[in-house]
Design goal:
heterodimer; A: mainly alpha; Rna Polymerase Sigma Factor, Chain: A; Arc Repressor Mutant, subunit A; 2 domains; disordered C terminus; B: alpha+beta; Phosphorylase Kinase, domain 1; eight-stranded antiparallel beta sheet; 8 helices; rod-shaped
Chain lengths: 170, 262
C-alpha cells in the first residue's frame, strides 16, 4: 500500500519528466494522471525492499511504459506538433548560460525517443544508470550507449544552430 | 603522458558521476591535457543545466487538482450511507413479498441519486475552472436567468443569496441531465473558490442530506419538492452543510413557496 503523502511528493518530478518528454502541458499531465491511477490501481504490487526499486523508480517505470504504449498507438495518427514548438509563437528565447533553451527543446524533440528518454532520466531527473536501466527495461550498457549517442547528437545540433564549428575551421 | 583516451561512454559516465574513483581520476587527468574532450564535458554539463533551466519551473507550478484527486483512494464516488442503510433496514423490516419490491425500488433510487451526484460533480468540475466563460447567463441578468431557467425546468427556481456565507452569485446555466434539463448556479467567494448549486427535476419524495466525495470535490445532495439538488465544491463538509442550511432557511422563509418551491 502506498501512502498518499509519499505519492504526492513524487508528483512534481513526474510532471517535470512528462513535460520534457511531451512538451505539451495538458498531454503531459494526462500522462502523469494515468500513471498515478495505474500506480494506485496496482499499489499492492510495489513493496519497499532492500536492493529493490524505490517508489520513485517504480512510478517512472509505470509512466515510461504508459508513454511507450501511447506513443505506439499514436504512430498511425498524424503527428501533433506541440504548440510551443511551432516557431515564432514560442516564448521569447530564454537562455541558460550558454544554450538557447528554445533550441535545446527543439533539438531534444528531434532525438530518437529512446535516446531522449534516457537522457532526460539521467541528466534531468538525476537517476543513476542502474535506476534508468530498470525504468526503461534495458541492460545498463544500453542505457550508457543511448545516453552517449543522445548527448553527442544534442551537442552537435546545438553547435550547428548557433556557431557551426566546422565552418569556423575553414 | 596521459593514459588511454577515455571512450565516449566513459566521458558520459564521468559527467554523471558514475565512475569509480580511479577511473574518475584518470579521466580528469586526460581532460586536463585534451582541450577538445574538456570542451565536450563542459558542453554536456551545460546541456544538463539548460535542461534544468527549461523544465525545473514545472516543479514549482501548483499541482493541478485532477492530479491531486488521482491520488485519493478510492477514486470512485463514496457515498455516506448511514442514513440510507437505516432506511433500507427500516424497509426490510416490512418483510414478506413487499420487502423485495421495496428493496428494488430503493436500489433504483440509489442509482438515481448516484447519477444526480455524478452529474452535479461533473458539471462543477467542467465549469468551475472556466475563467472567461464560467456561466451562460451572468449574475447581472439574474431576473432574466431566473425566468428562463424556471421555464426550462418547468418549476420556479431562483438562486439563493449566499452573501451571508461569503459567496457572490457568478451566474447560471442550463444543463442536460439524462433526458431532462437541469440548472447550475455558480458562486464565488473572495478567495476565488467556486461553489455550484445544481438542480435537476426529479420524481420522488424528500430526503435528508447526503455527501458524496470524489477526489477533492465534495457534493452535498438532497431531494426536495420534486428537485434533486446538489451543492458542490472543494470545501469541507461542515462548510457545505452550513451553506445548505442557509439555503433551506431562505426557502422556508419565503412566503407561500412561490419563489423557492424547492
Amino acid at each position: 500500500m502506498i501512502g498518499r503523502s509519499e505519492l504526492l511528493s513524487h508528483i512534481p518530478a513526474l510532471r517535470r519528466y512528462a513535460r520534457a518528454l511531451l512538451r505539451e502541458p495538458d498531454r503531459a499531465d494526462d500522462l502523469v494522471q494515468d500513471c498515478l491511477e495505474r500506480a494506485l490501481g496496482k499499489g499492492h504490487l510495489w513493496q519497499p525492499r532492500p536492493g529493490g526499486q524505490g517508489l520513485r523508480g517504480w512510478l517512472f517505470t509505470i509512466m515510461h511504459n504508459l508513454h511507450i504504449d501511447q506513443a505506439r498507438r499514436r504512430t498511425s495518427m498524424p503527428p501533433e506538433v506541440p504548440l510551443e514548438a511551432s516557431g515564432p509563437l514560442a516564448e521569447p528565447a530564454r537562455q541558460s548560460d550558454r544554450i538557447a533553451l528554445g533550441e535545446l527543446a527543439a533539438a531534444l524533440d528531434r532525438l530518437p525517443d529512446d535516446q531522449r528518454q534516457v537522457l532526460l532520466l539521467v541528466a534531468l531527473e538525476g537517476l543513476s544508470y542502474r535506476d534508468a536501466a530498470e525504468v526503461v527495461g534495458v541492460p545498463i550498457g544500453t542505457v550508457m550507449s543511448r545516453l552517449a549517442r543522445g548527448r553527442d547528437r544534442l551537442r552537435l545540433a546545438l553547435a550547428g544552430e548557433s556557431t557551426p564549428p566546422l565552418r569556423r575551421v575553414k | 603522458m596521459t593514459g588511454p583516451r577515455p571512450t565516449e561512454v566513459e566521458i558520459n559516465a564521468y559527467v554523471d558521476g558514475e565512475l569509480g574513483p580511479e577511473t574518475q581520476a584518470q579521466v580528469e587527468r586526460h581532460l586536463g591535457a585534451e582541450a577538445e574532450d574538456a570542451r565536450r564535458v563542459a558542453d554536456y554539463r551545460a546541456i544538463g543545466e539548460a535542461l534544468h533551466a527549461l523544465y525545473d519551473p514545472v516543479m514549482a507550478e501548483p499541482v493541478p487538482a485532477r492530479l491531486l484527486a488521482a491520488t485519493e483512494r478510492p477514486r470512485s464516488a463514496v457515498l455516506v450511507w448511514s442514513m440510507r442503510i437505516a432506511a433500507v433496514l427500516a424497509l426490510l423490516l416490512v418483510g414478506g413479498t413487499g420487502g423485495w419490491l421495496l428493496r428494488q425500488s430503493t436500489s433504483d433510487g440509489v442509482t438515481a441519486e448516484i447519477a444526480l451526484a455524478r452529474h452535479a460533480i461533473e458539471a462543477h468540475r467542467l465549469y468551475s475552472v472556466e475563467v472567461r466563460h464560467p456561466v451562460e447567463v451572468a449574475a447581472d441578468e439574474e431576473a432574466h436567468m431566473t425566468t428562463w431557467l424556471s421555464r426550462r425546468l418547468g418549476k420556479p427556481i431562483k438562486p439563493p443569496a449566499l452573501a451571508g456565507a461569503g459567496f457572490r452569485l457568478v451566474g447560471g446555466r442550463l444543463l442536460p441531465a439524462d433526458d431532462k434539463p437541469a440548472a447550475q448556479f455558480m458562486y464565488e467567494n473572495a478567495g476565488g473558490q467556486r461553489l455550484t448549486l445544481y438542480f435537476a427535476v426529479a420524481a420522488g419524495g424528500d430526503t435528508s442530506y447526503r455527501f458524496v466525495q470524489d477526489g477533492g470535490t465534495q457534493a452535498l445532495f438532497w431531494y426536495i419538492d420534486g428537485f434533486g439538488c446538489a451543492l458542490t465544491g472543494e470545501f469541507q463538509r461542515q462548510d457545505l452543510m452550513a451553506i445548505a442550511r442557509e439555503i433551506y432557511r431562505q426557502r422556508g422563509g419565503d412566503s407561500g413557496g412561490q419563489t423557492y418551491t424547492w
